[in-house]
Queue: 2 jobs
Job 1
Amino acid sequence: MRLKNKTAIVTGSGRGMGKAFALALAKEGANVVVSDINLVEVKQVSEEIKKLGCETLAVKADVTSKKEVDDLVQKTLKKFGSIDILVSNAGVSSMEYVIDMPEEKWDFNMDINLKGTFIVTKAVAKEMIKKQTGKIICIASMAGKGGAATQAHYHASKHGVVAYVKSLAMELASSRITVNSVCPGAIKTSMQDREVKWSAEIRGAGATSKEIREELSNFTPLGRIGQPEDVAKVVVFLASDDAAFMTGQAINVTGGQVNTM
Ligand SMILES: NC(=O)c1ccc[n+]([C@@H]2O[C@H](COP(=O)([O-])OP(=O)(O)OC[C@H]3O[C@@H](n4cnc5c(N)ncnc54)[C@H](O)[C@@H]3O)[C@@H](O)[C@H]2O)c1
């Protein structure tokens, strides 16, 4: 077990990749604080973690609220005494051509994906600095390295996360805190289900979700859509001392897809 006696917070861990990260960290021995806007789902994830014999806490926190994030940090410190690992994962997406995009959709993506990353990492970094150690992992995206029609706002937010992580890594290196981002490709979650449906609607002419999924697989050199567990293995590695000499990196987990457009 690589993470015994470590305490991890995972944001957006009620479902999808965040849930897979929470379970994978627990399987390596970590105490895991599962946090999301959806308290019902994080309580369910917490129950699954308890069944693994690990310590856990479920906390409702919206990453766009400094007050709720501060509360998440305080509850974690009260129960476990320290925060060793942060996985800043909470994120959203939507699809719209720029010329049709209301400002609300731009703000929705920016506020949760980019400003939420700032709010959560800032609150946790303050505590990690006191202990002069820690691992911060931010979930960006392959979208943080390229561009795509109908997702300018999402791609801009994820480019922001990649750049933010590179900069924060430089600021925290002297406190022996590593900061890396992970850039997943097409991963089967509820976010992807929504995006596949929207893509079919935008394309029109009878396009189906099944066809869009087949295209996603065909565009992926390894020939399949990724599973949350594919990404969780990389997150566990970055959270462990095996990655002690890595910081400021943006690691692709894309099945070989390289989005450089
Ligand atoms: N699925 C993919 O193909 C894919 C690819 C690349 C990157 N990502 C990124 O991975 C992360 C996880 O995505 P997913 O696919 O598991 O999505 P998902 O929609 O399945 O799960 C996201 C979780 O985040 C929570 N959340 C949303 N807004 C929140 C907020 N303001 N505060 C706290 N929690 C909030 C949701 O309730 C949900 O539980 C996101 O940052 C996403 O942008 C996803």
Job 2
Amino acid sequence: MSGRLDAERLNTFLEYLVRPGDVDEWFICGPFELVQLVRDTLEEAGVDRHRVRFELFTTDRPDRPEGSVGRPVVVDEGDAVRKITFTLDGLTASINTPAHGRETILNAALRVRPDVPFACAGGVCGTCRATLVDGTVSMDENYALEPEELERGYILTCQSHPTSDEVTVNYDS
Ligand code: FES
């Protein structure tokens, strides 16, 4: 039983050492692939996902093409843009982002308000969450929001890109 955990070892643990029915809560900590493996295996073993908490060391997605990472976003005259409006601490601001720039709402908002909240910028911590008031977005990763929060309209602004011409979000809700 030495070596890195895999599904086979984990199932052996669950059968002989740690019976899922005897456990109140599960705390998983590690790199993305390992955490996913354990979460999936526990779910297959009948564990309620609300009893499983996890912390990621990394999201292991260095290959993801992020148009706005590492260089400032410049909106040239004549560029097709999308308008992002956001409210934070009772103040509302708007900013344009290039329609094809893949800039996140967080990065766009930070260009005009350096106090916009964020921490991991990787979809893990939930610090950047806001409610989507108007418009549509695509969200790359989400390791922080529960399905109930998604249903209530929350998004992770560090992972969300506008897909409609205008998007409005509220950090205060
Ligand atoms: S800053 Fe951590 S999830 Fe967005």
